[in-house]
Amino acid sequence: MRAGAPRRLLPGDFPPGHAVYDQARRWMMAGVYEVMVHDLRAALRSVQGRAPEPRALVLDARTLQSPERGTGGP
């Protein structure tokens, strides 16, 4: 795989490139990919003997970017 899936690299038995793009865009706008990732993560965690949902979250300086503000003045 290169960057994404250029239409010219789709398998020959796929619909035309514009149809694949249009369907993928509809799924993206509907949030289908996020649901698939969520369900896959839960399934993988269950297979590993873990709770389907994480119970902890780690946040660091790269995760949380606070706005730069002075400590005094306007």
**What is the CA-based Rg, rounded?**
21 Å
Structural category is: mainly alpha
Summarize the main sheet. none
Globular, elongated, flat, extended or rod-shaped: what is the shape? flat
What does this structure look like?
The protein has 74 residues and is mainly alpha-helical. It has a domain at 15-47. Helices cover 41% and strands 0% of the residues. It has helices spanning 17-30, 32-47. The relative contact order is 0.06. The model has no long low-confidence stretch (mean pLDDT 82).
Key descriptive features of the protein:
74 residues; 2 helices; mainly alpha; flat; 0% strand
Give the topology.
Blueprint: H1 17-30, H2 32-47
Compact description:
With 74 residues, the chain is an all-alpha fold. Helix content is 41%, strand content 0%. The protein has two helices and no strands.
